[in-house]
């Protein structure tokens, strides 16, 4: 990525889970007849308990919470411009909601309890209907203030793909969910979701490396020279993952659901914060029986193979040079920074065990307090995140896409983001146009930080 972040400053812990949806790569979207949700009606996502084989025998299968009793939940897929119509059924004993991570607009359907809706009580139901304005890779998960870490940490999450009208030129469309699990030796999920050390520190970091519920690495076979469209999302509670590519030249073509000019990441490694999504194109080696790897870069420990791609069979047909999708015409081409509403947030960690984060010198009231600011629709806004903690934070602006501003001049990075990593003791600024009316959350995507008060909201009128 064209950003100056050190994996040594961010990586901690020992694990990540990589779960491949449907355990296979799909052909590109063109010609497939599975677009749209169940007969274009309402798809039901029922949250209930299930099991997953996360550790080998003799350990027991792990009890998880999942949509359809599976984690990740069902892949939701529809075409750009179609209606997303999903009914959430709560079969658990905890309140729920569904947040559509990365989707712009439609505040009433954003799924943040208690800010944009009431929580869905056990046994209850809530129907979500919203138009898929943008194509891209999104994810869904609960957002219930105070309990989101446990809901997500036990497995409630999934992917949503909104297909563009003309797909990218590729031989396969591979979807991957990166996640981590914090397990005891017997395979039981550890229940320390409100641990003060996680709330004030790096968050809840898992202890298992797994692929599709089995030890890493995953293995996939493709034709020699095949062009792969890889889309991956980091759905871990807290881990900032550094995903490297070996024996392939990757080109990032979309970041956080929005297309960008194709570029090769620095050192062929992508720093992916919780909630981040990336789309990458690459060509596999031309030789048969060659291999390429997707690697989780470690710190003070060896790198770990996450996925191994092997070339087998007849060669794939030759393809033109890699090119990205067109830029999203619904996003502004410029942001008038001189006229922007400027708001700085000084973020201070809990001063003692059990205390909460402070914002601008006061104890945070999160979504129950007054708005940080109010602006008219169409107003430019710049937010400054001043991190006074000794750990990184990942600040996420709901309902909008933001530009990360350069530290030393008035420029910005050449791609849109939903969240931005703010290293310890540093300050980062983002800019956006507040074009969607409603009450919008601003919070840390490290879920244990959010639950401990690193959350607020603003209003667009």
Measured distance between first and last alpha carbons: 35 Å
Count of separate structural domains: 3
The value of Rg in angstroms is 21 Å
Principal-axes geometry comes out as globular
Number of helical stretches of at least 4 residues: 4
Task: Walk me through what this model shows.
The protein has 461 residues and is mainly β. It folds into three domains: 29-163, Cupredoxins -  blue copper proteins (Immunoglobulin-like, Sandwich), CATH 2.60.40; 172-311, Cupredoxins -  blue copper proteins (Immunoglobulin-like), CATH 2.60.40; 337-460, Immunoglobulin-like (Sandwich). Helix content is 4%, strand content 38%. The protein contains four helices and 32 strands. Strands 12-11-1-10-14-19-16-17 form an eight-stranded mixed sheet, with no helix packed on it. A six-stranded mixed sheet has the order 24-23-22-26-30-28, with no helix packed on it. Residues 2-18 and 31-36 have low confidence and may be disordered.
């Amino acid at each position: 990525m064209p950003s100056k972040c050190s994996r040594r400053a961010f990586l901690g812990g020992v694990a990540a889970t990589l779960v491949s949806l449907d355990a296979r790569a799909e052909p590109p979207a063109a010609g497939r007849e599975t677009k749209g949700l169940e007969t274009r009606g309402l798809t039901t996502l029922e949250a209930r308990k299930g099991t997953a084989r996360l550790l080998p025998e003799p350990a027991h299968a792990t009890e998880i919470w999942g949509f359809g009793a599976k984690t990740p939940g069902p892949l939701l897929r529809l075409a750009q411009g179609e209606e997303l119509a999903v009914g959430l059924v709560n079969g658990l004993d905890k309140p729920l909601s569904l947040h559509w991570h990365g989707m712009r607009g439609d505040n009433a359907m954003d799924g943040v309890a208690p800010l944009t809706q009431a929580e869905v009580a056990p046994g209850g139901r809530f129907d979500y209907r919203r138009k898929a304005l943008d194509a891209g890779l999104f994810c869904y998960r609960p957002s219930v203030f105070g309990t989101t870490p446990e809901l997500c940490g036990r497995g409630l999450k999934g992917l949503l793909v909104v297909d563009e009208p003309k797909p990218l030129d590729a031989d396969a469309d591979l979807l991957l969910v990166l996640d981590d699990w914090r397990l005891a030796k017997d395979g039981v999920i550890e229940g320390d979701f409100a641990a003060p050390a996680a709330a004030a520190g790096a968050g809840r970091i898992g202890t298992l490396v797994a692929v599709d519920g089995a030890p890493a690495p995953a293995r996939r076979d493709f034709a020699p020279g095949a062009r792969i469209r890889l889309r991956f999302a980091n759905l871990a509670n807290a881990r900032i993952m550094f995903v490297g590519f070996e024996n392939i030249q990757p080109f990032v073509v979309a970041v956080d659901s929005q297309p960008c000019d194709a570029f090769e990441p620095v050192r062929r490694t992508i720093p992916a914060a919780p909630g981040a999504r990336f789309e990458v194109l690459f060509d596999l080696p031309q030789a048969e029986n060659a291999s390429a790897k997707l690697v989780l870069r470690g710190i003070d420990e060896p790198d770990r193979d996450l996925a191994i791609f092997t070339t087998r069979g007849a060669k794939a047909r030759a393809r033109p040079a890699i090119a990205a999708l067109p830029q999203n015409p619904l996003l502004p081409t410029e942001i008038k920074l001189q006229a922007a509403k400027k708001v700085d947030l000084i973020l201070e960690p809990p001063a003692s065990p059990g205390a909460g984060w402070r914002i601008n010198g006061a104890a945070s009231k999160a979504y129950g307090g007054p708005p940080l600011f109010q602006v008219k629709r169409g107003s430019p806004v710049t937010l400054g995140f001043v991190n006074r903690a000794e750990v990184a934070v990942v600040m996420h602006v709901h309902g909008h896409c933001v530009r990360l501003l350069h530290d030393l001049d008035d420029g910005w990075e050449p791609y849109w983001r939903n969240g931005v990593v703010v290293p310890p003791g540093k300050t980062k600024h983002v800019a956006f146009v507040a074009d969607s009316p409603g009450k919008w959350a601003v919070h840390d995507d490290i879920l244990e930080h959010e639950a401990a008060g690193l959350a607020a909201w603003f209003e667009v009128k």
